[in-house]
Amino acid sequence: MTTATSGAAHKYDSLDRCSIKGNRAVSSGSEVAQAERTALCDLFVRVGPEAPTLSGDWKTEDLAAHLYVRERKPFGAMGILVKRFEARTEKVMADVLASKGYLGTVEAVRNGPPALLKPLDGMINPIEFFVHHEDVRRGSGQAPARELGGEADVLWKLLPRFSKALVRGLSDIELSVRRIDNGDTVKLRSGSQPVTITGEVGEIVLYLYGRKSVARVELDGSHAATGIVSGTAMGL
Which residues make Cβ contacts (< 8 Å) with residue 157, sequence separation at least 6? Predict the structure, then answer.
């Protein structure tokens, strides 16, 4: 068995003033979604439109436009999941920024999903906004992981619903995830080569969503199997 570690310790900086403190009272998906949305929008305002993110080459203005289009421009958002529509989605994002400006786009995101999507907010948005909040917090490579408290339970419950899509590139790997705080383990896919990802819930989420460079997790399994997992692109 071999163990591989991803990520590194970072120093705290002023960005953490816009983070969410661990709160055991947080218990519902909608509460987590709203808390992450608010904290992310506060951070958007604080760092401005040109700050780096973990979302590829996107700056904060691109990420804000993505979140707006995702919720409010369904036909324009098709490129988020379908590659051949990427150019169309990028144009819609650029049009949003041109018409609303950066701060206007951020405030529209802050206002929450449109009425038709509100019933789904607690299912589709907690992880989405957690990941993108961390994209901005850690985009400069300085902010550390944060304690999630009760939010971790919500993310943990939702993660298996998206796991098939997140790890679709894996082949012949039996992938499990294990919480370091209480030892709970969930198998995400079957295969002949077992690998377990162990860490704090938020770090596991980031790893599976493709933020491997910052996610503080351990991979337990054979050298060959952990190499496959670490080398396979993940995320939506």
Answer: none
